[in-house]
Q: What sequence folds into this?
């Protein structure tokens, strides 16, 4: 079998631990988690920035993994003398690596949505505690601006997330077809599909670049106090 991407292997333990914590948070214990973090001095806005950074990093890794997977698919077509089983192992490994990073991206986006919902709900509730009408209006305006910026960010993230699905499906289709037909004809089918797969991967990478740029801008606004 082909050795997997070393970057993925190197981060697997850390990601596994982090995703276990995310599973607890997303499993219905969010408010307890956020309350505990606030007692430690971490406000929801701080957690939001951290999670946007994590989602940005996950998308950056996904870019590289999908690009590498495409190269591995292309190399299978371009090496006619390679054993068919070895070809299958190569593209199967590429697909599995891509599916793994895609799942990480999905979970990071869910974590961003979870904390943003809690942050905006708390912000709205606290508006009623103002005695100064002018300060309340300023805070309402800031809330609306932040919400608009967030909506733009999460839309970009979902655009990139949705782009992953057709690429993953195309990868899986080719893996399954080669698995069921370990012959030269199956390799020819992969070669015929490579043009469309390449276009899908290019579009995915462009959407992820836009999402990463939007994440950077969002983080910068928060760090600068908007």
A:
């Amino acid at each position: 079998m082909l050795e997997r991407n070393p970057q993925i292997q190197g981060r697997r333990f850390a990601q596994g631990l982090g995703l276990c914590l995310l599973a607890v948070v997303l499993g219905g214990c969010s408010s307890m988690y956020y309350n505990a973090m606030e007692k430690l001095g971490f406000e929801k806005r701080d957690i939001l920035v951290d999670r946007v950074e994590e989602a940005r990093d996950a998308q950056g890794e996904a870019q590289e993994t999908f690009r590498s997977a495409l190269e591995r698919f292309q190399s299978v077509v371009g090496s006619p003398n390679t054993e068919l089983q070895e070809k299958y192992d190569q593209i199967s490994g590429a697909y599995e690596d891509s599916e793994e990073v895609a799942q990480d991206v999905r979970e990071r986006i869910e974590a961003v949505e979870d904390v943003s919902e809690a942050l905006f709900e708390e912000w709205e509730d606290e508006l009623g505690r103002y005695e100064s009408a002018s300060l309340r209006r300023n805070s309402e305006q800031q809330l609306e601006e932040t919400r608009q910026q967030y909506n733009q960010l999460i839309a970009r993230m979902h655009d990139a997330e949705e782009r992953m699905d057709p690429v993953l499906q195309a990868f899986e289709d080719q893996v399954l077809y080669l698995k069921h037909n370990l012959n030269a004809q199956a390799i020819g089918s992969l070669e015929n599909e490579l043009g469309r797969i390449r276009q899908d991967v290019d579009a995915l990478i462009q959407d992820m670049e836009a999402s990463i740029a939007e994440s950077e801008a969002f983080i910068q606004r928060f760090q600068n106090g908007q």
About this structure: The CA atoms of residues 123 and 143 lie 7 Å apart. The chain has five helices and no strands.
